[in-house]
Amino acid sequence: MSLVRDTLRTSSITEELSDAEVEIIEGLFAVQDFQSGEIIVQPGDKQPDNLYILAHGDIEVRIESGGEESTIHVLKPGDLAGIITFVGGAATDITATLYAVGNTKVLRLARAEFEKLINSHPMIVYKVMRGVVRNVHGIVRRVNTQSAELSNYIYRTHGRY
Prior knowledge:
The chain is α+β, with helices and mostly antiparallel strands. It contains six helices and six strands, in the order ααβββββαβααα. It has helices at about 5-10, 20-25, 85, 110-115, 115-120, 120-155; strands spanning about 30-35, 40, 50-65, 70-75, 80, 95-110. Strands 1, 2, 3, 4, 5 and 6 form a six-stranded antiparallel sheet that branches. The longest helix has about 35 residues, at about 120-155. The protein starts with a helix and ends in a 6-residue tail after the last helix.
């Protein structure tokens, strides 16, 4: 199997796709290599409408706060990035910078390429977008859990701290 197909099979966006459907979308992805510390995506990028899937390595998601950068999450293989602008959000909504940790391989899907499937393969588009929504839901659940744990810690509730 190829790196693209293997990575797609670890991602939530292909959970509902058959092998034949994965073959159709696999050609839409470009593989990009990054060295440790290289920026993958940052606020102000000129081509922000790409969906990224981590194939190999790790990606640190950092935000600037109080003049310093803080890591808020580390992406693992199969995780998605660039979701907001891929689904049509404004480039000004990008507030995080993604950095490669070690040698990193990323799959990149341009929105314009994906949109070409709307007329020819609408069910693939539908299933992939359902996978994107599932991924976002997982992120929201994780952040909500972290927020509740932080609140418990700050207010010393539930006797765990």
